[in-house]
């Protein structure tokens, strides 16, 4: 019986490691694509904005919900966008339920009096959440192109001039820009979030786009061709990541996406663990929901190559990797004991080399993306090593939380769209305390995270009597990761 259980554990462990390995190989292929693309000279047809006949009409949509701390900054920033007023419309899609509504209305009225075409659009309910708001605004949008910004984003004044020009190519349905981070250095939490997002916005977006594989509109800091939105079936609110959903439906209908790595759109990262948790939960659950919704359409599509299908499936499985990582982590201690109880199963540790190889591949991939933004000096490389292992540890610490999100998504459990609270914090002297949108409840998952912290402390201890330290570094990072997530969740409450 014990041997049977051991073989079952080994099988589950091996499958999870194999999936992680395939994911890392996909990332390595994206790195090759990324480096090849960076060496190419890029040319594309563009609108000549000096010719009035070529200036397209643009609608900017600002979906907002209870944004007391950033609403004034958002409207002031958008009002500075440099574009002919006769060809620009701004829609404030305001689903707010608090006292920000009146303040927002007053600010919009003042902007209207200055000559700006800006509308305050309110709905009777939040049906469809953000997707519903965008769809509602689209019904009356005057623009042929729809730029979208979340409340914490601050596009440069020339943002439209740098993006809308690429729609001269009539096959392009979306132009997406790279996110920047105004509070990157605020804390360890913001630095590791910036690190992960930078990898997505360089390696993944460029690596896929360079070879015509599917990428995603990131929900903000991008611009859509209205015709593309309608042709793809319009916004739908049946997943928590409506941006990924519409992106895949559009690309399956042969619309092309253009990604601009060189156009940075600054925004704010969550500075409190509860805010980061809610954002991570929404993104990871939404990813799993979109896997359920779109994977068969990708696999069965006749108009895309096998390689595009492979990268599409891996892209839709991105969030599910947390489930694989958590499985590997949880089973690593039983695996340690199996190896020492059953001598003939010592070969099991050869499987672990897959995880080491996967980690090395990710280390290499992320270095190239890190240096593209931060620089490549020796000091930067030392900083990178520290940041990578900090990021890796905290990602492990999030694996339970994100795995629960993924499981809910795969099982089709519906949940409300929980917005990420904004703070308007730019320096470490700014305080998040007192933000009225922060949840005051402790996550029930925290009890499990505390238990897992102790579990991996036991794993570290187990190395001593077994005289087997092969998994000690892994268990140490897990201990640190779950400890970080637990204590930050415990202390960072309003």
Can you give a write-up of this model?
- 56% of the residues lie in helices and 10% in strands.
- It is an alpha/beta fold and 494 residues long.
- It has a 7-stranded mixed β-sheet with strand order 3-2-1-4-6-5-7, sandwiched between helices.
- Helix 3 (100-113) links the parallel strand 2 and strand 3 (118-122).
- It is built from 16 helices and 7 strands.
- Helix 8 (242-252) packs parallel to helix 9, helix 11 (321-341) crosses helix 14 and helix 12 crosses helix 13 (378-397).
- The chain has 2 domains: 2-36 and 319-491, no CATH class; 45-297, Alpha-Beta Complex (Spore Coat Polysaccharide Biosynthesis Protein SpsA, Chain A), CATH 3.90.550.
What is this structure's SSE topology?
Layout: H1 2-38, E1 58-64, H2 71-78, E2 88-94, H3 100-113, E3 118-122, H4 129-140, E4 145-148, H5 159-163, E5 172-181, H6 188-209, E6 222-225, H7 226-231, H8 242-252, E7 256-267, H9 273-300, H10 306-316, H11 321-341, H12 348-374, H13 378-397, H14 399-411, H15 445-466, H16 472-491
Helix pairs in contact: 1-6, 1-11, 1-12, 6-12, 6-13, 8-9, 9-10, 9-14, 11-14, 11-15, 12-13, 13-16, 15-16
Keywords, separated by commas or semicolons:
494 residues, alpha/beta, Spore Coat Polysaccharide Biosynthesis Protein SpsA, Chain A, 7 strands
- CATH architecture annotation name of the largest domain: Alpha-Beta Complex
Largest sheet, in brief, is:
7 strands, mixed
* CATH superfamily label of the largest domain: Spore Coat Polysaccharide Biosynthesis Protein SpsA, Chain A
Kindly report the spatial arrangement of strands forming the biggest sheet.
3-2-1-4-6-5-7
Helicity level = 55-70%
What is the average of the pLDDT values?
92
Instruction: Work out the helix count.
Output: 16
The CATH top-level class label of the largest domain: Alpha Beta
């Amino acid at each position: 019986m014990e041997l049977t259980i051991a073989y079952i554990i080994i099988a589950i462990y091996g499958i999870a490691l194999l999936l992680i390995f395939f994911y890392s190989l996909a990332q390595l292929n994206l790195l090759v694509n990324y480096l090849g693309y960076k060496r190419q000279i890029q040319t594309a047809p563009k609108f000549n904005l000096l010719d009035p006949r070529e200036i397209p009409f643009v609608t900017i949509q600002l979906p907002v919900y209870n944004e007391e701390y950033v609403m004034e900054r958002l409207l002031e920033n958008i009002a500075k966008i440099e574009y002919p007023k006769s060809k620009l419309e701004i829609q404030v899609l305001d689903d707010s339920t608090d006292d920000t509504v009146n303040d927002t209305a007053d600010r919009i009225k003042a902007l209207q009096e200055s000559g700006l075409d800006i509308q305050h659009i309110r709905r009777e309910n939040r049906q469809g959440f953000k997707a519903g708001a965008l769809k509602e605004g689209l019904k009356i949008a005057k623009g042929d192109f729809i730029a979208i910004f979340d409340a914490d984003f601050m596009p440069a004044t020339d943002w439209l001039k740098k993006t809308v020009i690429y729609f001269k190519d009539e096959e392009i349905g979306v132009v997406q820009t790279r996110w920047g981070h105004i509070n990157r250095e605020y804390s360890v939490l913001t630095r590791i979030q910036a690190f992960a997002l930078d990898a997505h916005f360089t390696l993944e977006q460029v690596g896929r786009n360079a070879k015509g594989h599917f990428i995603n509109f990131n929900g903000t800091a991008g611009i859509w061709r209205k015709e593309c939105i309608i042709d793809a079936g319009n916004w739908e609110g049946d997943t928590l990541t409506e941006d990924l959903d519409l992106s895949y439906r559009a690309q399956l209908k042969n619309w092309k996406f253009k990604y601009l790595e060189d156009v940075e759109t600054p925004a704010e990262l969550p500075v409190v663990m509860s805010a980061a948790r809610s954002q991570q939960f929404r993104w990871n659950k939404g990813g799993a929901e979109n896997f359920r919704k779109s994977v068969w359409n990708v696999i069965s599509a006749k108009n895309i190559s096998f390689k595009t299908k492979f990268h599409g499936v891996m892209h839709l499985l991105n969030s599910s990797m947390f489930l694989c990582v958590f499985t590997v982590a949880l089973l690593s201690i039983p695996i340690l004991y199996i190896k020492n109880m059953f001598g003939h199963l010592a070969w099991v540790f050869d499987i672990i080399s897959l995880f080491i190889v996967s980690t090395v591949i990710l280390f290499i991939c992320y270095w190239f993306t890190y240096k593209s933004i931060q620089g490549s000096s020796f000091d930067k490389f030392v900083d990178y090593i520290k940041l990578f292992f900090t990021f890796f540890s905290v990602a492990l610490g999030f694996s339970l939380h994100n795995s629960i999100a993924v499981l809910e998504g795969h099982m089709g459990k519906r949940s409300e769209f929980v917005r990420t609270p904004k703070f308007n914090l730019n320096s470490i002297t700014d305080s998040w305390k007192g933000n009225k949108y922060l949840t005051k409840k402790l996550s029930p998952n925290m009890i499990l995270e505390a238990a897992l912290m102790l579990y991996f402390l036991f794993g570290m201890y187990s190395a001593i009597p077994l005289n087997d330290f092969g998994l000690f570094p892994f268990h140490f990072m897990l201990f640190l990761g779950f400890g970080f997530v637990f204590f930050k969740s415990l202390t960072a409450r309003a």
